[in-house]
Amino acid sequence: MPEYNSVIRRRKQGVKRQTPASSRPDAYNQPSRVINPEYVERRTVAERYERQEQPKKPIPQRPAYQKQVSRPKPKVQTRTSPRQSKKVRKSYALHYCLFALMGVLTVSVLSVTVLFNTRSVVVNGDSVYSVNEIMEAGSIEVGVNLLRFDRSEAERNIMNGLIQLDSVTIKKEFPSSLSITVKGGNKRLSILHDGMYLEISEKGRIIKTSTQRPEGLIFTGYIPVSSEEGDYISCEDVEKTELIFRLADLMEKHGITEVSEIDVTDRFDITLFCGNRLEVKLGAPTELDEKIAILRKMLDDCIASNETGVLRVSNPSKASFKPDLSNQVIFVPPPPPPPPPIEPEPALPDLPVTPEPEPTTAPEPVTEPTTAPEPEPTTEPEPVTEPEPTTEPEPTTTPEPVYFTEPEPDVIMH
Description:
The structure is a single chain. Helices cover about 25% and strands about 15% of the residues. With about 425 residues, the chain is of the alpha/beta class. Among the domains are: about 60 residues, Roll (Ubiquitin-like (UB roll)), CATH 3.10.20.310; about 140 residues, Rossmann fold (3-Layer(aba) Sandwich), CATH 3.40.50. It has a ten-stranded mixed beta sheet with strand order 6-5-4-7-8-9-10-11-12-13, with helices on one face. A hairpin with a 6-residue loop joins strand 8 and strand 9. It is rod-shaped. The N and C termini lie far apart (about 145 Å).
């Protein structure tokens, strides 16, 4: 029994059991020891007594600042198999997808029905049309939903309904506003086709047609495919469309306002007309900028404002001017004015004429009367002669103007 208690005690104290020497490999040649059982019993009893008599040592207490804070015990994680964890993840992903789908559906329904409805429409730009006309042409109403509003269709409807516009841009300004920017079609040039004058905007759109000649630059010899209002001009010769706009830009660049008409029937023989007095030959559409610059210089320095003729600038390095003398008027001084008519002198009134007294002579000696004295004749008054009427001078005939022809000089500018 004491041995059993000692074994139990050793097990509690964590002391390993010592194997006997006989079982050790190095104790084969050592003599075996004999242990007296009484000695073992007495020893165990003595040790037990000492252990009972020995006072217990007090357990040292830690100060308050060194006391350990009680921590929650970690949860014990149970291990799951890979198959079970995969099922759990799939269930969570399915829930997340359902919640996201419900959120998207809710937001889309609200945005189409309640949210993003237009409350104001702002129109910017220069145009001859009012805001109501623009909104009516594009079928735009206050309250329309911005997400359901078709911007490209509204722009197309406005351009088709309002022909005097060059461009329309509609911009959505969330959450509740529409911005419309329009640009009016300003006249850039005119085209004469089939007796009709087509007014063309900067974008090449026909904004007006009329039979009366408009002001500004007019092109002839250009045959458009369509001549209806609102259409954009186009020609079978594509380069001719670019040519007329380039010529219009060059005329504006160099400030030439004398040119009233440009003939582009033959694209390689361009002719300009300055009213009815000058004809300018440009030739092929090459070096147009230099040719127009020479034309500007010739009009300023070499050609008078009332001079007529033909100017050739087909070669920019050698321009020539041929004046037209057939229509030149030679100045003839006017004839001198006729002399003023001579006014007649006023006629005197008719007065009785008294005879002049005859001179008295000395009396002669009286002689015997032989005959009776004869009475003296009375003189009748002389008739007053009336003044002759003055005749007006005959009008002088003016000499006819004399025309002369001179050899046709050529003005050559290098």
